[in-house]
Specification:
Layout: E1 6-17, E2 21-32, H1 35-54, E3 60-74, E4 83-96, H2 102-110, E5 115-123, H3 129-152, E6 157-172, E7 202-214
Antiparallel strand pairs: 1-7, 2-4, 2-5, 3-4, 6-7
Length: 222
């Protein structure tokens, strides 16, 4: 008796979802003629930035220091001892979960002295239910496609031989843009206007490969 026929198909799903996290990257700088003065000024500005972020409470899920550097600023010819000052930089990474305050936070961070703000980088959580939903839809699509092929041949599915996951992928609709720029001087009196920020739709793609057994097809002409 011949082996059961195999039907091999690919199941795919593409879902659109609202982001769950907005990530900001903040660089705080100082530049002074003296190394210690540059470090002290950087410490002061870093504390001011952290105090501002922490004032938003649970709206900010995580704050991390990504790195700190103090380096000499050399003159053009770069001769030995040819240092005109020192520049300090602190990199702060912020994860915001309440998008209602995001525009205000970005504007206030960008208004701080010698501060760069990059972002937001919109994301889904790693354990987001959207990934599971996409995987299930891809599997359902594989079954439906295999069943359609079997019916076209006058057969029916009898079992699953293999189901392999080709992976889940998240793709933003557009490149991440600069949210707020460098503030070269001290903040002016009063609070800046919040920046209008629209959450970027997240596109999740799931693909599976499946092999099914089927009954012998009916290939007689009709």
């Amino acid at each position: 008796m011949s082996e059961a026929p195999l039907i091999c198909v690919r199941g795919e799903a593409v879902l659109e979802a609202e982001p769950e996290i907005a990530r900001l990257s903040v660089h705080v700088q100082s530049q002074e003629s003296d190394r210690r003065a540059a470090l002290d000024r950087l410490t002061e500005r870093n504390r001011r930035c952290l105090d501002l972020v922490e004032s938003y409470g649970d709206a900010v899920e995580r704050v991390e220091t990504g790195g700190l550097s103090i380096m000499p600023v050399l003159k053009y010819r770069r001769r030995e001892g040819d240092v005109r000052g020192y520049r300090g930089t602190v990199w702060i990474k912020i994860a915001v979960v309440d998008f209602g305050v995001l525009g205000e936070l970005v504007a206030r961070l960008g208004d701080l002295e010698r501060t760069y703000v990059d972002g937001p980088d919109w994301e889904l959580r790693r354990d987001s239910e959207v990934y599971g939903r996409a995987a299930r839809q891809a599997a359902h699509e594989a079954v439906a496609r295999a069943r359609s092929y079997a019916e076209a041949l006058g057969a029916r599915l009898t079992g699953l031989v293999e189901l392999s996951d080709e992976g889940l992928h998240r793709t933003p609709e557009a490149p991440v843009a600069l949210a707020a720029a460098y503030a070269p001087g001290a903040a002016e009196a009063g609070e800046p206007e919040p920046i209008d920020l629209e959450p970027e739709t997240q596109i999740v793609r799931a693909t599976v490969l499946a092999r099914f057994t089927a009954t012998q097809p009916d290939l007689e002409p009709r």
